[in-house]
Write a structure and sequence with these properties.
The protein is 24% helix and 22% strand. It is an alpha+beta fold. The protein has one domain (5-105): HIT-like (HIT family, subunit A), CATH 3.30.428.10. Bound molecules: guanosine-5'-monophosphate.
């Protein structure tokens, strides 16, 4: 199967503005930012979407969320707050089939989302 754009970013085949990396996850700025701060954090393991995660992925999923909070803090969002979004499937608005969590901040977020 061909690589998703996020696999290509993980493998350094296409450039991205990386803000955090460790053994399990990579965080980089969204190329089409929807907020003053818009970062994507992705597991390095190929999990197409949350619905396809399995119990063996529990550690990486927990790590992803903990690191999302840490990255948000590093980007100066801890005090003002931020939103984490995971789009799953067509109705969820998923466009890249590699699990990713959006970190959005730097402005107040509306609710409910569109
Ligand atoms: P989704 O709609 O799947 O939840 O989010 C995919 C996100 O990936 C979108 O916000 C889109 O702007 C971002 N994106 C798509 N292609 C690239 C790319 O090549 N580089 C970066 N940095 N972000 C991308």
């Amino acid at each position: 199967m061909s690589k998703s754009v996020f696999e290509k970013i993980i493998d350094r085949e296409i450039p991205a503005a990386i803000v955090y990396e460790d053994d399990l996850v990579l965080a980089f700025r969204d190329v089409n930012a929807k907020a003053p701060v818009h970062v994507l954090i992705v597991p390095k393991k190929i999990i197409p979407r949350l619905a396809e995660a399995v119990p063996a992925d529990s550690q990486v999923l927990g790590h992803l969320l903990l690191k999302a909070a840490e990255v948000a803090g590093r980007l100066g969002l801890a005090k003002t707050g931020y939103r984490l979004v995971i789009n799953n499937g067509p109705d969820g608005g998923e466009t890249v089939p590699h699990l990713h969590c959006h970190i959005l901040g730097g402005r107040p977020m509306a609710w409910p989302p569109g």
